[in-house]
Amino acid sequence: MEQDTETRIFEAARAVFVEQGFDGARMQEIADRAGINKALLHYYYRSKARLFEAVFRASAAEVLGQAATALRQDQPLPDRLTTFVHTYIDLIRANPHLPAFVLEELRRNPGMLKTLVAEHTPGLLDALGRGIEDAVAAGRLRRIDPAHLLAHLIGLCIIPFIARPMLQTATQMDDAAYDAFLEARKEEVSAFIHRALVP
């Protein structure tokens, strides 16, 4: 029962924080969504800051962990890049408010996100660099700086989610069409990266 209560608190808090950010979130709303009183919420998490940190750490760990795992797989690099793109876009589609949530926290508390990146992606750039060198030596890839490749991958995947209001208006898509567009991004981004990097 206690574990169930803690899980309900955590899920309610995650929803409220992702939707409203740290400053907009209210402990009473989190308690209401979890179906408990505010006193019980404070019993589990003494303050909004502690609850937010727990939620943010778990959310960032999920994103960073899955992304890093995709790029470290025992596959040729072009295949790893495709896996990364599909994994990352699927993850964001399942949590569409997550990019804005992370960006807001990066602005508010950059130190915590830097710590989480260091914890969950150790050696990632070196592993990506080795994969590039192996693929170049095998004639499967053009040489590219791994930092630029990582920035390209993240930007191509994440911008359509962050810029959805602007892009959806500019392209005159309704919600269903834009959702289909986001799903199609998996193949489009993979193909774009392939065309850019494969000799």
Describe the structure.
With 199 residues, this protein is mainly α. It contains eleven helices and no strands. The protein has helices at residues 2-24, 27-34, 38-44, 48-72, 77-94, 98-108, 110-120, 124-137, 146-162, 164-171, 175-197. The longest helix is centred in the N-terminal third of the chain and has 25 residues, at 48-72. It is globular and about 65 Å long.
* Mean pLDDT value: 90
Q: Count up the helices.
A: 11
CATH topology title of the largest domain: Tetracycline Repressor, domain 2
Number of strands: 0
Per CATH, the architecture of the largest domain is Orthogonal Bundle
* Overall structural domain count: 2
Uncertain spans, ≥5 residues at pLDDT below 50? none
Radius of gyration: 19 Å
